[in-house]
Amino acid sequence: MRKQYETVIGLEVHIELSTRTKIFCGCPTAFGGEPNTHTCPVCTGMPGSLPVLNRKVVEYALKAGLAMNCKIHTFCKFDRKNYFYPDNPQNYQISQLYLPICYDGYVSVDTAQGEKRIRIHEMHMEEDAGKLVHDPWTDSSLVDYNRSGVPLIEIVSEPDMRSAQEVIAYLEQLRIMAQYLGISDCRLEEGSMRADVNLSVREAGAESYGTRTEMKNLNSFKAIARAIEGETMRQIELLEEGKEVIQETRRWDDNKECSFPMRSKEDAKDYRYFPDPDLPPVVIDDTWIGRLREEQPELREEKKKRFIREFSLSEYDARILTESRNMADLFEETAKICSQPKKAANWMTQDAMRLLKEAGKSPEEMKFSPGHLAALILLEEEQKITHKGAKEVFEQIFDHDEEPLAYIEAHHLSTVADTNVLEQVIEEVIREHPDSVAQYREGKEKVFGFFVGQVMKKMKGKADPAVTRELLREKLR
Which residue ranges does the chain devote to CATH 1.10.10.410? Predict the structure, then answer.
């Protein structure tokens, strides 16, 4: 009988903070730009340059810590993590080891077994390294220091996750939380959210942990899920063959769907940490913490419950709408303007989500005015446009933020309620389908929908539905 195994997973999640300038200098943090143009002597590690802490970084870190139910070190320090690598211009990284800003917290996630708490061991501030660009054609590597010195928080979880599904739920929770707080856009494709996966396997029921590996180079949730599944199977196969799992750092290749060893896993002693001599300790008083606690925005779980309560939405609609702060704000403003929350929810969860998927965009990229969507909902409610026509108008609102009434008039999309025009079309349809008329008069009610469809077809979808039905009933008697 084959042994049963359990996967044990902890994460180190790096989130780039969306401050205007870097953590220890005044260089911009904007993504992109020509290589090595967002740099200065401080973030390129020039001799004699001195770091100055960006107060906003501390504030953003505190906001994240409060949202994750962390305790706060009101007296914390920065340390130097020494290692030699081309993208690290100082040959050390300024981080926090001994007194991180936040510790001992948790976030709750929804799993197949219900709600689960993932404990946060610590969260610390640090600077990002530069970026190596590998050119396979010239077999060379180039370094871009634009990212060097961009502020990060690193969130270190306890080994509380047991599956790829729990890991993705946890990462989604961190991503949504950071976006709601306004501290990061968490775009994995731009590297503003990155995760290293520490994973081990053990026999089911065992108390001690197995030997863990750390996987890097994970830049999407799908890649993380595949890496977890792949590394789990690799370790199980080693144990089944009586071999040992080596503690090491591995690089995941998503194209080949397998991992490769990079280096043996370092311990803290390998980095020769010591207190940074150029940065004084950070002292955080209760007044500062209290102010930030009062300023904390309504987070996703609170908003979801309120949407269900105030707008009578389903659990499903509330969950979809609150996955993005931008989408939640657009929905709520629209609903308040038109007083039609269910219809606003339908446009957002169905048509907006479809258009986002087709365009390959995220909900955070939607820029249209809620007033325009509200106006469209009311125009359809007043039957001044058909639902088919409204869908065409919504696409224009979504893409170009068009004013709906002006677009409707310019493209002749208003419904036709002129009884003389409709009567002529209805009489024409009745003459063309005598067999269907006979069936309807024999009591086959379903045929009525056929007649409505034929009228709409001839009117190119512009016939007023209510007037059309009323006239049809009269003509078919």
Answer: 419-475
| Residue 201 reports pLDDT greater than 80 | yes
- Asked whether residue 212 carries a pLDDT value surpassing 60, the answer given is yes
The yes-or-no verdict on residue 260 having pLDDT over 90 is no
Cβ density class 133-164: b for 16+ within 10 Å, e for less: eeeeeeeeeebbbbbbbbbbbbbbbebbbebb
Q: How far is CA 371 from the centre of its chain?
A: 25
Question: Which CATH class for the 419-475 domain?
Answer: mainly alpha
280: left (phi over 0), alpha (psi -120 to 50) or beta: beta
Interval 105-127 mean pLDDT: 95
Q: Is 187 helix (H, G, I), strand (E, B) or coil?
A: coil
Tokens for 7, please give them. Answer: 């996967």
User: Where on the phi/psi map is residue 272: left (φ > 0), alpha (ψ -120 to 50), or beta?
Assistant: left
Q: Tokens 């949504």 sit at which residue?
A: 176
Secondary element (H or E) of residue 109: strand 102-111
> How far does Cα 61 stand from its chain's mean position?
19
Q: Structure tokens of 50?
A: 């001195």
Name residue, tokens 């591995």.
Answer: 250
* Distance (Å, whole) CA 374 – CA 365: 19
d(CA 127, CA 142): 20
Amino acid at 257: E
Reported as type and span, the H/E element at residue 227 is: helix 221-240
pLDDT over 80 (residue 469): no
